[in-house]
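In the laboratory, one determines a bound structure by crystallizing the protein with its ligand and collecting diffraction data. In a computational setting the workflow is compressed into a single prediction: the sequence and the ligand go in, and a structural description comes out. We illustrate the idea with adenosine-5'-triphosphate.
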Amino acid sequence: MASVTFDKATRRFTGMDRPAVGELDLRIADGEFMVLVGPSGCGKSTSLRMLAGLEEVDSGAIRIGDRDVTHLPPKDRDIAMVFQNYALYPHMTTADNMGFALKIAGMPKPRVRQRVEEAAAILDLADYLDRKPKSLSGGQRQRVAMGRAIVREPRVFLMDEPLSNLDAKLRVQTRTQIAVLQRRLGTTTVYVTHDQVEAMTMGDRLAVLKDGVLQQVGTPKDVFERPANTFVGGFIGSPAMNLFRLPLTADGALLGALLVPLPRDTLRAAGAEGATEITLGIRPERFDVLAPEDLETPGLELVVDAVEDTGAVAYLHTSGKVGQEITPVVVRLPGRPTQGKGAHLRVAVRPEAVHCFSAVTGERFDEVRETTSVRVRLPQDTTR
Ligand code: ATP
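The predicted complex, in structure-token form:
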């Protein structure tokens, strides 16, 4: 068993008014690929370094399997770490870099060679074993760093932004390779990144951190579809979820001239907080752009400020009047855009596309969606 458990693990640095990592409770299953993700300074590297034994744990505990490793030195934890800068020895060949840790641990040379060759075959490095790092490409160096971790056959891999030195195309290739390799080896892996696309595509689950505090743990699908709060909603997903703080009515929330109907439970929960507002989250791909000739369906009026055309999809950066404010709204369109800068459009929102958060705490209201159909309507619509 090589599960990993953070049990209220806390790290405080002098001079900081809050812990760098505060009471982190996280259990990573045997063989699982867990991604720690969050913006710069959220405490993800510190969490990984605590697990590695490179950072002290001020309170709480860390376990690998059933073993309490909280105060063990790194070499006794049976882990292998892949760093951002690879930390390869420049004067050593690929084979020597990969086998170095085994050699100093006293493993016989033929055994070391065998393990290195096996790892090189997996990593497509067999033809590069005699080269030194300076004559390898960035991607090959990254694979040597991975190989050095693999040959040790550790109980846990720890990876700290291992792709950040690669160019965009290689990052995409390599992230798939790492994910495939991890599943093939079945080694428990903790992977740190600030890149939410890596987090969404690589891990079995992700743990989102902010200011040293765990915000949510779940599968990529869970976290994307049911973000626990406005921070997670805004952080996971690209471009970010549109977040609107809107006045509540008896039936829903007012998004400009649109009344977005909300489930009774959500309205009750918001009311119980004494709130007069609610925060709605709408992802850019969840708006329905209304046909120009459709003047019947109520819609939010927007003006296009800029168009980002990626070829496959387009992002319209727009603004619209929401309450008294002119608010930026990002709308994703499938295919090529027909609208240019300055164009006017109207969008509708389906109720099931809306995420509801407390305007007081930012926490998600856990919706029990009503089964009766609801539709977008204008406030003066009295047909319901
Ligand atoms: P990044 O993506 O920028 O590396 P991170 O999420 O990995 O960020 P950490 O490096 O874990 O964040 O840092 C968390 C907080 O702890 C930050 O506010 C950082 O400034 C602080 N910190 C980290 N190491 C130390 C240290 N040795 N001494 C003092 N403060 C530190």
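The CA atoms of residues 69 and 76 lie 8 Å apart. Keep in mind that any predicted model is a hypothesis to be tested, not a measurement.
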